Fold:
Amino acid sequence: MSHTNQTLGEFIIENQSEFKYSSGELSRLINSIRLAAKVVNHEVNKAGLVDILGAAGDINAQGEDQQKLDVYANQKFIQTLTKRNIVCGIASEEEDDFISINSQDEQNQNKYVVLIDPLDGSSNIDVNVSVGTIFSIYRRVTPVGTPVVLEDFLQKGNKQVAAGYIVYGTSTMIVYTTGHGVNGFTLNPAIGTFYLSHPNMRFPETGQIYSVNEGNYVHFPQGVKNYIKYCQEEEDDRPYTSRYIGSLVSDFHRNMIKGGIYLYPQSSKYPDGKLRLLYECNPMAFLAEQAHGLASDGYGRIMEIEPTALHQRVPLFCGSRKMVQMLEKFMATEV
Ligand code: AHM
Ligand code: MG
Structure:
């Protein structure tokens, strides 16, 4: 833990020169995510107290299950980024299509697009378990001042300029990277300020936790089944411990601190995996690599996958370097 008492605001200003094309815009962008995070955090925290939650089972006019906080978080992040005129486009798990901002305005010099999962793991809200926000930031590839197009969003993960998550847990944290390591900031709710609490976060090289929904075991590919059996074997430092919250952000966060691997494989239920490449897997992969861990689809780097659709799904295996490498070995022998 750091004892510098540095706030996130101070940290952003101090590290602005690290950005390759520093113009202050990316700093403003991260600042606005910080602001939206505080607003969403406030709402998430009172979920049990007020009737914003739309208790599980409520059905809306369209006949869909209600998850009001999902919608709220989506609106807050989009509003904050749009109103402050910071980005030129946003894609969200909650929106079918991307949103183009000020596309008619030729004066619009905004360079960045944001891809976001506003409230991941939202099935956990009803039961007071941690949820998170995940974000990924790219420079647009088309010229400034023109409307954004799909191509601006369908970029490989290795082109990300920043990525991070907010975990609304026993305490609320923002963890992010701009390609210079990973830093974590904890919210002091009494005064609404994030402090640098986890500087330079790193996955231990190996760990003793595996995180997977084992209820799907029979549907997993043989390589994953074999790896899970390996985790359970009595040998060397094994058996490992199984820990699965069912909230990607929280499972990842714990594994980064303690050492572990997160697995969401392809299965007969989800032939391409469940998690979304652009706003779940890529940002987590960027964080994992910046924290000296790895993120793979079982065969290669997540961040090298060429995206083909906004809501594309891929299998995800990420965490401590040696554990992901071992998983890849098991996958390779089963092809
Ligand atoms: P969501 O975006 O619909 O919330 O789904 C993503 C979540 C992840 O946070 C979590 O790791 C995974 O889905 C859990 O899925 P499952 O319930 O199939 O284990
Ligand atoms: Mg999600």
Summary: The domain at 209-332 is CATH 3.40.190.80 (D-Maltodextrin-Binding Protein; domain 2). Residues 93, 117, 120-122, 213, 246-248, 274 surround AHM (ligand 1) (CB under 6 Å).
